[in-house]
Amino acid sequence: MSPFPRIHAFLCLVIGTSLVGSLFSVPEKDLLFTAKQLRFDDFFAKPHGKPTTGKVAGNSFAEYRVGKLTVRFTEAKFSGKGEWTGYGVDGGSPDRILSSLKIWAPSGNFALPEKMVTDLGNPNIEHCRTRLQGKQLDLAMVNSDGSGGHFVLYQIDLAKAKARRFVREVINDEFTRTHDWIPLMK
Questions:
Q1: pTM of structure
Q2: Which residue, 28, 120, 129, 155, has fewest beta-carbon neighbours within 10 Å?
Q3: Of 163, 92, 9, which is closest to residue 1 (Cα–Cα)?
Q4: Percent of the chain clearing pLDDT 90 (strictly above)
């Protein structure tokens, strides 16, 4: 008999749980993105320049330069009307919401549809990540009031003037496609 029966039982539980957990993990082919596709080391870890910030009509904005593009995130105070069904809070309503996302490019000016931005509460517009790969612009942000944290990834096809959005709540392991390719507004 082992002199440490409780430790032996605990180790069996931990090892058994790890083996069973690995049997039920999501296969890489079923993931929306892999770490390699997002290149987390490039995209999230490299420091980005500070955005230009300011206020227009009482709303805060942050502008990022990405090559020849200018991307502007604008946030506004949440009106408090209606029940909040978006991201960014764990019960209640957010203090602020993302109110617009606009892109100025040599090929034209675009805005993302309202339904792709206004359900993101407590945005962190001064700490967004940007990446331009060919004609695809990736924008990422981490928003939170603390317990309502969520990651947001926008992918914008500049050639086709379309965008899609993925959101991953902190309590979930995977990104959820919340909006598939939607035409941008000119």
A1: 0.75
A2: 28
A3: 9
A4: 43
